[in-house]
Amino acid sequence: MEQKKSVLDRIKEFADKAHGDQMRKYTGQRYIVHPVEVMQICSKVTSDLSVLSAALLHDLLEDTPVTKEEIKTFLQTLMDLKSVDRTLNMVIDLTDVYIKDAFPMLNRRARKDKEHQRLSTVSPDSQTIKYADIISNSIDISAHDSDFGPVYLREMKALLKSMDKGNQQLYQKATETVEMCLKQLNKEFR
Description:
Elements: H1 2-19, H2 33-43, H3 49-57, H4 60-63, H5 68-75, H6 81-93, H7 108-119, H8 124-144, H9 149-162, H10 168-188
């Protein structure tokens, strides 16, 4: 257990350094707070080191200049090659492909529809991490952004309908969290 904690601590430090000066949009906290929360949510349903590691790293390729090769090189100092490959594949699975810069001809809804289709095919472990990400983001966004919150929550509700192969306990929690946040925002508009 101590060895796993040490590995996760080193991965957290790597992710924190990679995220640099990035802050959480609504709270002003260092960005690493979110990946740590995602990892902690996952740790309630799994002790799989690759899953927990990927949870800590899940936003690196999307939000930092860090490359796949840099992540792989770093992870090879901490774990065996099979675990490195599993971890990196989950990080890749969790990196948005249909982004505005790459698909400027598609509107947000079209990009999200394509992203939802893609995420419905990723590994169950990747989907489990995405459930934790949805839980963390849903609570944060709905508490701080009553304009964008309903848009995000409706997108996540649709995503969860097509992405149901991960841990069922966490899937249920994500579904309940999105519904709870939607109801809370709807009450605020009455």
